[in-house]
Write a structure and sequence with these properties.
The chain is α+β, with helices and mostly antiparallel strands. The protein contains three helices and six strands; from the N terminus they run ααββαββββ. The N and C termini lie far apart (about 35 Å).
Length: about 120
C-alpha cells in the first residue's frame, strides 16, 4: 500500500493527471492542509491547471492498516508547494479496493504547527 501511495505522490509532483485519475475513486473527497475540500474532479482540474503544484513530497513515519477492502494510511509529510512554500503535515488516507484495485477514497492533511 505504501508503495502505491508513493507512486501517487510522484504523480502529484509530475502533474500526471491520468495516473492520478486512475488512483483516485470517483467519489473521493480530498481535504488539503488549508482546510479546502475537493472532489476528485475539482482536484484533478487544479492539478491540470497547475493550481496544486507540488515541487516535492517527502513522506515519513508511515503506516498502513488493512480492514478487508479498506486500508488506512497514516504518516507525516513535508510538502514543497508553489514557488517557495514548505508545509509540514500529518495525514490520513483511506483507500478502498474496487474491481481488484486500491483507490484513494478520502485524504486528510493537517498542518503541524510550530511549538510555542
Amino acid at each position: 500500500m505504501l508503495d502505491l501511495e508513493t507512486k501517487r505522490f510522484d504523480a502529484q509532483v509530475k502533474q500526471d493527471v491520468p495516473a492520478l485519475a486512475a488512483a483516485i475513486a470517483d467519489d473521493a473527497i480530498y481535504v488539503h492542509a488549508n482546510g479546502a475540500k475537493q472532489t476528485k474532479a475539482e482536484y484533478l482540474k487544479d492539478v491540470q491547471a497547475g493550481t496544486s503544484r507540488y515541487r516535492s513530497i517527502e513522506a515519513s513515519d508511515r503506516s498502513a492498516t488493512f480492514y478487508g477492502n479498506i486500508a488506512v494510511t497514516r504518516g507525516q509529510m513535508v510538502l514543497n508547494v508553489g514557488v517557495d512554500r514548505r508545509i509540514e503535515v500529518r495525514f490520513t488516507g483511506i483507500y478502498v479496493k474496487r474491481a481488484g484495485r486500491w483507490l484513494v477514497l478520502s485524504w486528510q492533511s493537517t498542518p503541524i504547527m510550530p511549538r510555542q
